[in-house]
Design brief:
The chain contains four helices and three strands. It is mainly α. It has one domain. A three-stranded mixed sheet has the order 2-1-3. Helix 2 (30-38) packs across helix 3 and helix 3 (48-62) runs antiparallel to helix 4.
């Protein structure tokens, strides 16, 4: 099981479904959310901020304007 390290230092299971939900909550299309979440490479203990940076980069490849929207979406809702 791969884990992700949250800002608080707690570790939890890495789940791409949470990334998809985060993007949809920010108004990203279902198609882009699935593509980006499926392409997020990760390693054991990756931080949530690194995942967020990778997500933003992935969104930029599909929907550049939407990436700005995701970046401005409050971080507290990005429970990855």
């Amino acid at each position: 099981m791969d884990t992700i390290t949250k800002r608080s230092g707690l570790k939890e299971e890495f789940r791409s479904a949470k990334i998809e939900n985060s993007m949809r909550n920010a108004g990203i299309t279902e198609e882009t959310a699935q593509k980006v979440a499926g392409n997020i490479s990760h390693h054991e203990g990756i931080s949530t901020s690194e995942v967020r940076n990778r997500v933003i980069g992935g969104i930029k490849n599909h929907e550049p304007q939407a990436a700005k929207q995701y970046e401005s979406h409050p971080k507290k809702t990005h429970k990855i």
